[in-house]
Amino acid sequence: YNHTDVASICGGESFVFGKQTLTTAGEYEETFTSVHGCDSTVMLTLTAFPVYDVFETVTVYEDDLPYQFGTQSLTVEGEFIGNFYSVTGCDSIVTLSLIVKPEDNIPPDIVCNPIEVSLNSSGQYVLVEADISTILEGTTDNDSEFDELLIEVTPSSFSCEHAGLEIPVLVTVTDIRGNENICSTTVKVKDQTLPRISCKNINVILDENGLASLSKNELYTSAFDACGIANVTVSRQQFSCSYLGTNNVIVRATDNNNNSRTCTSVVTVTDNLSPVFEPVADQIAEADAGECFAKIDYPEIIVYDNCNVEELFLIEGLGPDAEFPIGTSRERWVATDGSGNSDTLSFEVIVSANYTEPSLNTISDIIVSEGTETVSVQISGIFDGSLCENLPLEFDLVFTNKSLVETFSVNYFPGESTAELLLVLTENSIGESLITLILKNTQTNEEFSTEFSLVVSAVNHPPFLVEAPENMEMKAGDTLIVLLSSEKGVIFDDTDENDSLYFSLAMEDGSEMPEWMRFMNDSLVAHPSISDTGCYKLLLIATDLKGGEAYCPLTLCVSIPSRIQYMSDFEIKVYPNPTSGIVYIDFSKYTGQRAEISVADILGKEILRKVYSSEERIEVDLSDRATGIYFLKVLFNRQEINHKLIIKRNP
């Protein structure tokens, strides 16, 4: 079994728990053998209660005897010992010292003193122990301590109705033997609690007279005092322009006992009314003849404001002392008061003027050749009729021969003294026309005109290509003769009657023609050698009797005859490849023999041709050539080999 048990002892006693003798409180464990011979474990919680030894002093009067002390009835003073059981059942020893006094019939010696008290925030006051001690200061008793006396004060509480008065009170003092004495005094009741008042801030706006007023109630939210508010006063209720901005107004609350408290209300005074101008009509004037300006009787600018106008100034226009130009001018005034409110006044000054007729300089006669598409005519000295302002102008042309001009336009900016007249001529037209230029002021309808002539004369037309000959091919060593007819309509033609053509032939790149190629009597004669293989760009030029020219590009390609062998074992070395410019050709196996070397660009244009007496290594300088792909051709001992070269410049 497992069992739990509890037990208690008094201080100084012992408790036997199995084989253990216990004298202190705690938890203990013991093993017991049951009647069946089995072990059982018992857990014991032991509590030790204390035993008390008490000394006590008691004072009694003779008429209170006998005094009962336990089972003893005592009639004289002295020390006595008794045994008592405590609530835990343990014995306690009490030693009593008994003092016996004679009987007391003397009342307290009472002294009453006046006092002052102050009502609390609720308008009440109740006498406290300290107040009673002050009232009875000096009071004694032959047998009782002061704090053993029974004291009664009537009345002991006060309210607002007693404020400011000395209230009579009756004080009764009784000692512990019941002896009583009475006295009277006064309690002066004061109200020293300040009233409570809460202000609020407010904004006011001045009226059209620059004034604003507030009632008292608008300056505070509440005022309270337990004994009542007698009045509320404020330092200011009326406001004018001089109080614009924030103002501290003192609000004072006074209670019925003349206690007062203040708070501050911030009154913000604003002026939202803008100044007001007296209206001004538009001013109309006329400039003197030939004048661009006029003086006017400038109107008086009058403005009103409920406070003061701080600024009055002109923000647009010329002002009272100015001369006004012809046309319409705007005058704009602004007035601003001390609060930043503003108003504007606007009126126009209209000055009229007299205008003269427009004019321009004489235009010279114009002679152009047939085929001219556009003629630009500069017009100068343009005057619109006014020295004071830019007036709108309109240009028009009248022709005696309308067939010469298809359209016309004038590029002119108002106020400028020059313009450009553009005449777009009719295609293939020739002849003469008298042109009248009319200049009109569209505002005044005044006009001015001037005349000039336009002559379009016939011109020579250059020849043009009709049909290009086919490109030409031949073998090196052969002779080629090609007739290139200069008869009109075959290769080239010319629209001019009685005109004839003659031909010439040149290299397309402007270089001299090779010696093996000739052009005579409208025929190309060519007799190239092996070293002349490749394609040649030619330019056939047709020229008429007046020097007009037309061009036709031709190509002549010279190839190697079939008897020339191409040998794959023609062993030479070309390096470096790619190169930055210098190329070496290694002829180490064929020294002492003649070699022809040429280089062409990617378009087939030959850029180098040279004959060398082959040494072990030939240097070819291409440093002046741009980065790109080139073709190297070597003719050697009637054998040909081609190499692709790459020139690559360092960045």
Low-confidence stretches: 563-569
Strand share of the residues? Answer: over 45%
Structural class: mainly beta
DSSP helix fraction: under 10%
CATH topology assignment of the largest domain: Immunoglobulin-like
- As laid out across the biggest beta sheet, the strand order is 11-16-15-13
Total separate domains: 8
Please tally the helical runs, counting DSSP H or I stretches of 4 or more residues. Answer: 1
Q: What is the name of the CATH superfamily of the largest domain?
A: Immunoglobulins
Could you give the count of β-strands?
55
Structure, explained:
GO terms for molecular function: calcium ion binding. This protein has 651 residues and is an all-beta fold. It folds into eight domains: 2-49, no CATH class; 53-101, no CATH class; 115-190, Immunoglobulin-like; 196-270, Immunoglobulin-like, CATH 2.60.40; 276-352, Sandwich (Immunoglobulin-like); 366-457, Immunoglobulins (Immunoglobulin-like); 464-559, Immunoglobulins (Immunoglobulin-like, Sandwich); 573-647, Immunoglobulin-like. The chain is 1% helix and 52% strand. A four-stranded mixed beta sheet has the order 11-16-15-13, with helices on one face. Strands 18-24-23-21 form a four-stranded mixed beta sheet, with no helix packed on it. A four-stranded mixed beta sheet has the order 26-32-31-29, with no helix packed on it. It starts with a strand and ends with a strand. The model is unreliable at 563-569 (pLDDT under 50).
